[in-house]
Design a protein that fits this description.
Strand content: under 5%
Oligomer: single chain
Largest sheet: none
Helix content: 55-70%
Number of strands: 0
Mean pLDDT: 86
Number of domains: 2
Structural class: mainly alpha
Shape: globular
Radius of gyration: 18 Å
Distance between the termini: 36 Å
């Protein structure tokens, strides 16, 4: 098991699983009755990404609980700052278990969510993709995307979202 170090680089798989499989999913589930809310959540901490990597690498539940406790103790001793959400995931077993379950379901392309929740997560993936790619156009060409570029980005964003979410045959 790779020890936690600040500044590690994580794969897109880990970042996407934490961001969409847990972070956005949790926000959408917790605000189920609000159909007008749209989110732009900050990226999660290095601590949470490290723990997410362990989960995606196949570490079993009991080892995840031990790793979370170990990491929390290590961070306390080191004096490194720890945001509230990361602390909650490391110290509250129910939240850690939710994190674990969400990432495993995301990894298996079998999230136990409704079709409406799935579509909202897909929309967030598309929005992130569109923002990232629009910024590339702006930085490269010093202009906003044209109408045709926007249409092309929409098609690519949808394909990207479908690729990372995989197919889901049934919904709750």
């Amino acid at each position: 098991m790779e020890d936690f170090q600040e500044g590690l680089q994580y794969s897109d798989e880990v970042i996407n699983a934490v961001r969409y499989g847990y972070q956005y999913r949790k926000k959408i589930e917790d605000n189920e009755n609000n159909n007008t809310l749209r989110y732009f959540l900050p990226f999660d901490s290095q601590v949470v990404l490290w723990l997410g990597k362990l989960i995606l690498d196949g570490l079993v539940w009991d080892a995840i609980k031990s790793s979370a406790k170990y990491l929390y103790d290590k961070l306390l001793k080191s004096g490194l700052p720890l945001d509230k959400q990361s602390k909650t995931r490391l110290t509250e077993e129910a939240e850690l278990e939710r994190f674990y379950t969400c990432l495993k379901e995301y990894q298996d392309h079998r999230m136990s969510i409704t079709k409406q929740q799935f579509e909202k997560i897909r929309e967030e993936i598309c929005a992130d993709y569109f923002a990232k790619e629009s910024m590339k156009i702006f930085e490269k060409e010093q202009k906003f995307p044209t109408y045709q570029e926007i249409l092309d980005l929409h098609i690519k964003a949808t394909k990207y979202a479908d690729d990372i979410l995989g197919r889901k045959d049934t919904f709750e």
